[in-house]
């Protein structure tokens, strides 16, 4: 078997890409994404793991402005509806956020998942039929990271009604609509998530999320130190140190 170990420089590039990935809703430039770059990103998505090797994904590349306009209208309606669920103070904040780049980005993409691909007997789906969705999310994360490695921003828009999208894109009823993405070169990738920058949310401490042996089980002091060390590493990466 070929020695295909990852070198230290390659490893650092992967972590740099992971920590430097952002959900991007602004800063889009109008430059088109060259076909070979788009092909690389899609190939990366297509190399995700999938339950029973089912590869349930499809990618609809959306360039047409009129189509995107219809999607934007769905976003506006859904955003207004979602705003009603917040109290007054939070609603004003929520409505001030930029939560999509549907018209500003040069390219949009719908990612779907086909639960019927390869029929009902897919290895691993008997006990967890929803794993086709997890597989498609793995493909999207690959796409997100590959795009970052190409210095292309990706924004995920979920403030959309699937019943609006289905007729716009002629998506059959049995196909799951998983994601609507906005892609394009950007003028910058911020260090922090947008929602952190505006004080809406914070990254949770990793040590609160890691359990050993039992759900909710207390960490031993030794394990606590280990997890805190992981957290410190994440912070130093987020701040741009090697
Ligand atoms: C499933 C999913 C749906 C999302 N939907 C939206 C959305 O509708 N609008 C938006 O602005 N961001 C959306 N996001 C982006 C998140 O807000 C973002 O990932 C999070 O705030 C962390 O920021 P980061 O991705 O820059 O690290 C979504 C992300 C995921 C994974």
What's the short story on this structure?
By secondary structure, the protein is of the alpha+beta class. 42% of the residues lie in helices and 12% in strands. It is built from eight helices and four strands; from the N terminus they run ααβααβαβαβαα.
What does this structure look like?
This protein has 242 residues and is of the alpha+beta class. It has eight helices and four strands, in the order H-H-E-H-H-E-H-E-H-E-H-H. Strands 1-2-4-3 form a four-stranded antiparallel β-sheet, with helices on both faces. Helix 2 runs antiparallel to helix 5 and helix 3 (65-83) runs antiparallel to helix 6 (162-169). The model has no long low-confidence stretch (mean pLDDT 92). The protein binds flavin mononucleotide (FMN). Residues 22-23, 25, 99-100, 156-159, 193, 195 line the site of flavin mononucleotide.
The count of helical stretches stands at: 8
Helix/strand structural class: alpha+beta
**Bound ligands, named by name, code or SMILES:** flavin mononucleotide
Query: How large is the radius of gyration?
Result: 20 Å
Shape: globular
The average pLDDT score comes to: 92
- Strand tally is 4
The major sheet is characterized as:
4 strands, antiparallel
What oligomerization state is this entry in?
Answer: single chain
Question: In whole angstroms, how far apart are the ends?
Answer: 32 Å
Relative strand content: 5-15%
Give the fraction of residues assigned to helices: 40-55%
Q: Strand-and-helix sequence, N→C?
A: HHEHHEHEHEHH
Low-confidence stretches: none
Strand order of the largest sheet: 1-2-4-3
């Amino acid at each position: 078997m070929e020695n295909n170990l990852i070198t230290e420089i390659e490893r650092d590039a992967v972590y740099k890409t992971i920590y430097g990935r952002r959900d991007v809703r602004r800063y889009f430039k109008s430059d088109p994404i060259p076909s070979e770059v788009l092909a690389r990103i899609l190939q990366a998505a297509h190399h995700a793991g999938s339950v029973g090797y089912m590869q349930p994904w499809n990618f609809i590349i959306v360039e047409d402005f009129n189509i995107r306009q219809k999607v934007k209208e769905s976003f506006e309606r859904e955003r207004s509806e979602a705003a009603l669920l917040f109290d007054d103070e939070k609603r004003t904040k929520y409505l001030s956020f930029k939560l999509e780049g549907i018209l500003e980005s040069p390219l949009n993409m719908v990612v779907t998942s086909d639960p019927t691909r390869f029929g009902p007997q897919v290895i691993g789906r008997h006990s967890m039929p929803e794993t086709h969705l997890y597989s498609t999310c793995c493909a999207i994360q690959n796409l997100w990271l590959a795009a970052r490695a190409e210095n292309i921003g990706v924004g995920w828009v979920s403030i959309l009604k699937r019943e609006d999208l289905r007729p716009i894109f002629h998506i059959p009823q049995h196909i799951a609509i998983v994601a609507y993405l906005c892609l394009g070169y950007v003028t910058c990738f911020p260090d922090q998530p947008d929602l952190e920058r505006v004080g809406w949310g914070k990254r949770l401490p990793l040590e609160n999320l890691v359990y050993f042996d039992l759900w909710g089980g207390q960490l031993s002091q030794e394990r606590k130190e280990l997890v805190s060390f992981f957290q410190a590493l994440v912070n130093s990466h987020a701040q741009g140190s090697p």
